[in-house]
């Protein structure tokens, strides 16, 4: 049994929980190298150290499920300087990095993005991009330690639809939905933002709590209209993946309420289906 | 080659193919069962393996092949139903009972099965034997795992490395 090939080891290891993998990693040098290799880790059980939730912002809770003692992370973010800790809003998390923004107390329309590694307590503030609107929820973090130590931030630019009232004055529509015009992408490698026009053919509305997942250098976005939208870190490759079977069914699919996530190398999509009963 | 040359003489009797193990034993089996092997499927679709030809399997000995075919014959009807979505609970329970008993075998036989299932690309069998090995070592200490799988005793350097890793993952041993 000590001559099992890599393919066979993957088959066997994919049947056990993370805790067993930790024991397996101590069995031999080969098994240790194998289990910790980035090419394999996505096919095996992932470590879940804990998860964030907040009942009332900006307070956060972090139940530690790894059994590590003391818990590896203090959700009060005590390591951030006082100024950064004010009015913090958790926007996104991706493979161990957190993406947050904070507003300045004296000007509620100004805000900055911070990317934080809670395990090392290191953080970095991103240079300010040109703000298209004062909306903090339409940015997403992309980080894949198996591919690169660099991260990306995707900030979607929305068409903040303007309407004219009877006096001919134009003003911003209060409706929070907006069409995606493009995206500005921050690369931690270049330390700069790059703007790209939207390459999605149809008009896409994203709400400020849309679901997304970053896999293999692509951001998968569950937006409106029965499809998953995909954009790469260069902003050059835009794709639309229709929901399976979306053409066959006449029911209304509220895609914006769907969930997308990844498990053992496979993307999982869980659309929330709302059946509308009509004649 | 299309006409079945063996079987019980009924019209429409299942097409048979012949597989030849590494020690030259010939096994005649229904094409549907042998087709559970992705490796064999194309050859069989092309009409191979019938009559006197036979498909040689130089990497699988007769003891292992007979065990592999036992699995294929049992699972072929369900596989023909497209994974048997409309199988009854009784059918599924029977297959599960069969699977559990099937892998209740000597470790050397299990090892040959792992290699054969992989060679022949029989998905269900690959998963079944991999899970069996996983169950054998799950929850054991690294030393127990080495003994279970018949690894040679660790050298002093290897032992030191194992100890260091065990410190690193100490929480996993509660």
Automatic annotation (TrEMBL), chain A:
Segments forming domain F-box: 1-45
SMART domains: FBOX
Protein name per Swiss-Prot or TrEMBL: F-box domain-containing protein
Lineage, broadest ranks: Eukaryota, Viridiplantae, Streptophyta, Embryophyta, Tracheophyta
Annotated Pfam families: b-prop_At3g26010-like (PF24750), F-box (PF00646)
Organism, scientific name: Eleusine coracana subsp. coracana
Superkingdom field: Eukaryota
Gene3D superfamilies, alphabetized: 1.20.1280.50
Automatic annotation (TrEMBL), chain B:
SKP1 component POZ domain boundaries: 16-75
Pathway: Protein modification; protein ubiquitination
UniProt record, GO biological process: jasmonic acid mediated signaling pathway; protein ubiquitination; ubiquitin-dependent protein catabolic process
Signal peptide stretch: none
One Pfam family of this chain: Skp1
SKP1 component dimerisation domain segment(s): 124-163
Gene3D superfamilies named in the record: Potassium Channel Kv1.1, Chain A
Keywords: Ubl conjugation pathway
InterPro entries for this protein: SKP1 (IPR016897), SKP1-like (IPR001232), SKP1-like_dim_sf (IPR036296), SKP1/BTB/POZ_sf (IPR011333), Skp1_comp_dimer (IPR016072), Skp1_comp_POZ (IPR016073)
Similarity comment text for this entry: Belongs to the SKP1 family.
Protein's job: Involved in ubiquitination and subsequent proteasomal degradation of target proteins. Together with CUL1, RBX1 and a F-box protein, it forms a SCF E3 ubiquitin ligase complex. The functional specificity of this complex depends on the type of F-box protein. In the SCF complex, it serves as an adapter that links the F-box protein to CUL1.
Subunit architecture: Part of a SCF (SKP1-cullin-F-box) protein ligase complex.
Protein name, entry field: SKP1-like protein
Organism: Eleusine coracana subsp. coracana
């Amino acid at each position: 049994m000590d001559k099992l090939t890599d393919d066979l080891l993957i088959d066997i290891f994919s049947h056990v929980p993370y805790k067993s993998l930790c024991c397996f990693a101590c069995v031999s040098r080969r098994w240790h190298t194998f289990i910790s290799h980035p090419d394999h880790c996505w096919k095996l059980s992932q470590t879940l150290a804990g998860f964030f939730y907040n009942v009332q912002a900006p307070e956060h809770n972090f139940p530690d499920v790894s059994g590590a003692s003391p818990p590896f992370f203090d959700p009060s973010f005590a390591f951030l300087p006082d100024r950064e800790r004010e009015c913090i809003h958790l926007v996104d998390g991706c493979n161990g990095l957190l993406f947050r923004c904070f507003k300045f107390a004296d000007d509620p329309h100004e805000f900055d993005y911070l990317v934080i590694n809670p395990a090392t307590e290191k953080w970095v503030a991103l240079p300010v991009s040109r703000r298209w609107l004062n909306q903090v929820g339409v940015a997403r973090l992309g980080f894949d330690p198996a591919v690169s130590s660099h991260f990306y931030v995707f900030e979607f630019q929305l068409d903040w639809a303007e309407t004219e009232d009877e006096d001919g004055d134009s003003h911003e529509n209060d409706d929070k939905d907006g069409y995606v015009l493009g995206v500005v992408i921050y690369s931690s490698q270049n330390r700069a933002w790059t703007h790209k026009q939207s390459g999605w053919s149809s008009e896409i509305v994203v709400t400020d709590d849309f679901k997304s997942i970053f896999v293999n250098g692509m951001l998968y976005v569950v937006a409106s209209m029965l499809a998953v939208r995909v954009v790469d870190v260069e902003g050059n490759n835009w794709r639309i993946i229709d929901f399976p079977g979306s053409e066959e069914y006449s029911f209304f699919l509220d895609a914006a309420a769907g969930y997308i996530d990844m498990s053992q190398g496979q993307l999982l999509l869980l659309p929330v289906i709302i059946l509308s009963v009509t004649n | 080659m299309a006409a079945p040359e063996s079987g019980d003489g009924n019209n429409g009797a299942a097409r048979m193919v012949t597989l030849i193990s590494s020690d030259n034993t010939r096994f005649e089996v229904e094409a549907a069962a042998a087709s559970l092997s992705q490796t064999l499927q194309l050859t069989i679709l092309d009409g191979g393996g019938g009559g006197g030809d036979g498909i040689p399997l130089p990497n699988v000995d007769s003891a292992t092949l007979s065990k592999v075919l036992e699995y294929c014959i049992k699972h072929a009807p369900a596989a023909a139903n497209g994974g048997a979505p409309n199988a009854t609970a009784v059918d599924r329970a029977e297959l599960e009972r069969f699977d559990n008993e099937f892998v209740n075998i000597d470790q050397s036989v299990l090892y040959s099965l792992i290699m054969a299932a992989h060679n022949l690309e029989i998905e269900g069998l690959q998963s079944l034997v991999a899970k069996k090995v996983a169950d054998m070592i799950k929850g054991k200490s690294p030393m127990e795992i080495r003994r279970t799988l018949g690894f040679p005793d660790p050298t002093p350097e290897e032992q030191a490395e194992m100890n260091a890793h065990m410190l690193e993952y100490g929480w996993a041993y509660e």
